[in-house]
Design brief:
The chain is α/β, with parallel strands linked by helices and about 160 residues long. It is about 40% helix and about 20% strand.
Length: about 160
C-alpha cells in the first residue's frame, strides 16, 4: 500500500513537472516561470534616448524612478547611460526630474502632485503584468513633439 501511494504521488509530480516544462513553460499563470523583460521596455529606453536627443541637457537629463517595492530591475541596465538617474521607494518631496518612471499603484497621488507640469502617463511593461507609468516634463515633451513634426523628418 505504501509503495502504491508512493507510485501515485510520484506519477502526480511527474505530470506536474511535464506540464511546467511544456504547456506552462512561458505562461503568466505559472508563478515559477522565468519572465523575460518585455520588448516594450526597450521602447521606453528608446523614448528616453529620443527625449535626450532634443533636450539641451542631452544624456545629462534627470530621471526619477519611484517604485514602492524596490522593483527597479532592469531599468538600471537600460538607462545606465544617464548619470542623473535616481531611485526612490516613495514619492520624494522634490519632484523635478525631466522624466519620472513610477508604479501605477502610486499614479493617482503622483499625478495630483505633478499637476500640469508633466505630460503623461504613458504606460510601459517591464515584465508580464508589471507596468510602469512614464511622465515627461511638459516643455521637454513639447520640444520632442516639435522635433517629430519638423519638415523633412519621418513621422
Amino acid at each position: 500500500a505504501v509503495a502504491a501511494a508512493f507510485a501515485i504521488a510520484l506519477a502526480h509530480l511527474a505530470v506536474q513537472s511535464y506540464r511546467s516544462e511544456t504547456e506552462y513553460a512561458a505562461d503568466v499563470r505559472n508563478p515559477w516561470v522565468y519572465a523575460h523583460t518585455s520588448t516594450n521596455l526597450v521602447e521606453l529606453a528608446r523614448r528616453v534616448d529620443e527625449l535626450a536627443a532634443v533636450s539641451p541637457k542631452g544624456h545629462e537629463l534627470s530621471i526619477q524612478i519611484i517604485q514602492p517595492d524596490h522593483d527597479y530591475w532592469p531599468l538600471p541596465w537600460y538607462l545606465r547611460r544617464y548619470p542623473n538617474l535616481g531611485f526612490w521607494s516613495e514619492i520624494p518631496q522634490d519632484l523635478n526630474a525631466d522624466v519620472i518612471v513610477s508604479s501605477p499603484r502610486i499614479g493617482e497621488e503622483l499625478r495630483s502632485r505633478l499637476g500640469d507640469a508633466y505630460f503623461g502617463p504613458a504606460m510601459y511593461s517591464l515584465r508580464p503584468a508589471v507596468l510602469r507609468e512614464v511622465y515627461v516634463r511638459q516643455g521637454l515633451w513639447d520640444a520632442f513633439m516639435a522635433a517629430k513634426q519638423a519638415p523633412g523628418e519621418a513621422r
